[in-house]
Design a protein that fits this description.
2 strands; two-stranded antiparallel ribbon; mainly alpha
Length: about 290
């Protein structure tokens, strides 16, 4: 699996697949979709946190890309054209359920404070190890929802997927300086709250994932028998990045980013079904002459 945000990503493969797809090659179109579908899905998932919503968003985006493929004129890299569609589509979505529930840092962290702490025994730490991990990912991911959509997308692409500023600026269709400034503001908004509240970042903060685990379970935010985040994935975000982030973080900003890069990179459970439905869709078949 090639990372389309990597500096060494081969745009020429995409260009060839686009050309063959437009010539009616069904296999080329399917291959093109397979190259980008996992990344589109993970962007959507990290933006709305609901796997079900992310599936639907991914399918809608892929249909939009495929039905507009003939409009790609080669004035930019194909990945720029494609992920500009992804970004614009997600930024203009109607609010999803969790976005209506979580949208403010004050209320979010006040809610965490009000959840009772409960120390876990050594046996319970082992018993709930996977659940604690799910709580940690759920909690830090929820912090992203406190940002507005654009700030959240900047963090997802700039810090979690680690795209460089030039590519980020091209995708957002703004200048490199403007992109850098917007990303810096988004980081400041998020990181300041994490520094003051999150025990993962600052050991002086009282909030600890293990201590909140029983409350998360009791209030139905986490189900040990059906984990949402710490389940059904093979890689972490850091595994798909070519930069070595395993070394000790030397700056506080790098520590923040590493927390989010430890979140899962997951293949859509319905990925093949989505792809099959799209390439076999009657309208798509008529467009491409399959």
């Amino acid at each position: 699996m090639e990372n389309p945000f990597d500096a060494n990503f081969s745009d020429s493969k995409d260009i060839d697949l686009v050309k063959f797809s437009l010539q009616g090659n069904k296999s080329a179109l399917e291959h093109l979709v397979l190259r980008h579908q996992p990344f589109i899905y993970n962007i959507a998932w990290k933006m709305v946190l609901s796997p079900v919503d992310a599936e639907d968003i991914t399918q809608d985006i892929l249909i939009k890309i495929i039905t507009n493929l003939s409009k790609f004129e080669g004035k930019s890299e194909f990945r720029t054209w494609l992920y500009r569609i992804v970004v614009n589509h997600i930024l203009n979505l109607n609010k999803r359920q969790l976005e209506n529930v979580v949208n403010d840092f004050d209320n979010y962290f006040e809610g965490l404070v009000q959840m009772p702490d409960a120390d876990l025994s050594e046996d319970e730490l082992l018993q709930f190890e996977e659940t604690i991990r799910d709580v940690s990912i759920s909690c830090t991911s929820g912090m992203l929802l406190c940002l507005d959509r654009e700030q959240r997308m900047l963090i997802v692409l700039g810090d979690i997927f680690s795209i460089d500023h030039k590519l980020g600026a091209e995708i957002f269709n703004i200048s490199t300086d403007n992109y850098r400034q917007r990303l810096t503001r988004a980081r400041k908004e998020l990181y300041n709250w994490m520094n003051n509240k999150c025990g993962l970042v600052n050991r002086d903060n009282p909030c600890r994932c293990p201590k909140k685990t029983k409350s998360f379970i009791a209030q139905g935010y986490v189900n040990p028998a059906s984990l949402v985040f710490n389940a059904n994935y093979d890689k972490k975000m850091s595994d798909i990045l070519t930069i070595n982030y395993a070394e000790k973080c030397e700056t506080i900003d790098e520590l923040h980013r590493q927390i989010f890069r430890e979140s899962p990179f997951r293949k859509s459970i319905k990925s093949q079904t989505i792809i099959d439905e799209i390439v076999n869709n009657k309208i798509i078949k008529e467009i491409y002459g399959f």
